[in-house]
What we know:
Blueprint: H1 2-19, H2 22-36, H3 41-60, H4 63-76
Helix pairs in contact: 2-3, 2-4, 3-4
Amino acid sequence: MKKFVLAAALVAALATPALAVKCPSIMKKIDAAMATAQVDEATKTKVMALYEKGKAEHTAGDHAASEADLNEALKLLGM
């Protein structure tokens, strides 16, 4: 039983970080897209506002909200 509990704890510890690291990869996609984006200034401003909000949410640990805002920014960039 003790081995089972230890194994379950190890699996949970290794799986949790893998699920929470989507935010930085989405931010990298936005950075790359902004370099070549052909959208108006108002859209760029909205994208950057969503980017900063998503970054702050990621830092605060709210990954679901972060991913939602970052994905919305990607949609505005046509991705």
